[in-house]
Design goal:
Length: about 180
Amino acid sequence: MDEQIQFNKPEKKELFKVEEIFKVDEETLKQIFQLEKDCFPEQMQSDDKELRELIEDPELIKYIVRDANDRIFSYLVAVPMVKEYEWLKDYDKEFSPDEKSLYLESIAIRPDIKPEKVLPDFLGALFKKAKNEKFNKLVMHARVNNEFSKKLQEFYAAKFFRRLENWHGFGEPFDYLEIDLGQNK
């Protein structure tokens, strides 16, 4: 009698998972607060109250990325540009409201994680959600010093419009970029 041998295919080990967040518990907020401190110089950090308001706002699009141990190592918050306009118009005089654009308010990836490992899935989830919500563009003021602006231009065809040398009084330059969501999957 022939013996049938079954080979178990090892399951692909999940290195991280991207999650859209709607309601958050205190532990999730605590991890996001810590991530904010780990990722940004003090002058760029949102305080806990401001960050809590962003994360808990039901009108915003929010994602987190968890590692295999269920620890959050990245988050992002995107805001309809028309909602963000009033707050940013004094910092960028060329900024104008557009109902079809989504503004990337904040993105943080723990410094020990290579952005190119997580950005395809992370931004891919955001692009899909934004298109489903009928947005045509993702716009942002992207940091230059950590090469985030360069990576977005190189890998996501982000179009450079202008550089603001001391964006928001942070003491470093940021580039205003736009990504056409029709060109990104």
